[in-house]
Specification:
CATH superfamily of the largest domain: NAD(P)-binding Rossmann-like Domain
Number of strands: 11
Pfam family, one: DapB_C
Domain Dihydrodipicolinate reductase C-terminal: 114-247
CATH topology of the largest domain: Rossmann fold
CATH architecture of the largest domain: 3-Layer(aba) Sandwich
CATH class of the largest domain: Alpha Beta
Shape: elongated
Function: Catalyzes the conversion of 4-hydroxy-tetrahydrodipicolinate (HTPA) to tetrahydrodipicolinate.
Subcellular location: Cytoplasm
Helix content: 25-40%
Strand content: 25-35%
Number of helices: 6
Protein name: 4-hydroxy-tetrahydrodipicolinate reductase
Structural class: alpha/beta
Order of helices and strands: EHEEHEHEHEHEEEEHE
Largest sheet: 6 strands, parallel
Length: 250
């Protein structure tokens, strides 16, 4: 049995994680902690894997504390920058346990992971590319971590194919052209009634390809969470891993 503790257990996502862990035949819930609880209660004596689902403002501090506690961590909170990822890597090195793992997922939905993968495959074949992400208005970060990850992957694939900048004659836009991530425009929509959605738009002269992933309910993220927990338990993926695609046969 994999002993799983959940940080952010009373949140929108954390409560679903608690239920998913309790329903998994190969897992048992160790501790369910929320804001204000002492993370040092989590240790290798009671926990194999921690699932962290909180908010971007506290996630880094939580992960660094959990690394010091000597446990493996699966992170669903978004808002990770290169600097924050470097701090996690440094903490793992300082901890000195070659088997310890931290996994960070821009998105746990299998549909979103596949859409991201397909976007990387398609990117070298199109002159234009843009990303639109659509979420509920309670989401605190924009653009989403998923959209940032997708844009970075598109940019890497375009660079590897020797493509130049995406064509755009806009001179002044007042912010309407969205955030530019590695040369790819990313647009964020916050609308009541939405959950989590992403469109990747590719264009050539006379043709367009649209890749869209829709998560209508938070339960759609749970198979990915459980997959991540199973992969970081033990020594199969030591160090820092980013992206659920690393655990899929793509």
């Amino acid at each position: 049995m994999i002993r799983v503790s959940v940080v952010g257990a009373k949140g929108r996502m954390g409560s679903h994680v608690v239920a998913a862990v309790e329903g998994a035949a190969d897992m048992q819930l160790a501790l369910a902690l929320d804001a204000g609880d002492d993370l040092t209660a989590i240790s290798p004596q009671n926990t194999d894997v921690v699932v962290e689902f909180t908010v971007p403002s506290v996630a880094l501090g939580n992960v660094l504390t959990l690394v010091k506690q000597g446990v493996n961590v699966v992170v669903g909170t978004t808002g990770w920058t290169e600097d924050k990822l470097n701090q996690v890597s440094a903490a793992l090195t300082e901890a000195g346990n070659p088997d310890q793992s931290v996994f960070i997922a821009p998105n746990f939905a299998i549909s979103a992971v596949l859409a991201d993968h397909f976007a990387r495959v398609a990117a070298p074949y199109f002159e234009s590319a843009e990303v639109v992400e659509l979420h509920h208005p309670n989401k605190v970060d924009a653009p989403s971590g998923t959209a940032i990850h997708t844009a970075q992957g598109i940019a890497e694939a375009r660079a590897a194919a020797g493509l130049g900048p995406v064509p755009d004659a806009t001179e002044t836009d007042g912010g309407s052209r969205g955030q530019v991530i590695d040369g790819v425009h990313v647009h964020a929509v916050r609308l009541r009634g939405l959950n989590a959605h992403e469109e990747v738009l590719f264009g050539n002269a006379g043709e367009q390809l649209t890749i869209r992933a829709d998560s209508f309910d938070r339960i759609s993220f749970m198979p990915g969470v459980l997959l991540a927990v199973r992969n970081v338990d033990g020594a199969g993926h030591p160090g820092l891993t980013v992206g659920l695609d690393k655990f899929l046969d793509l």
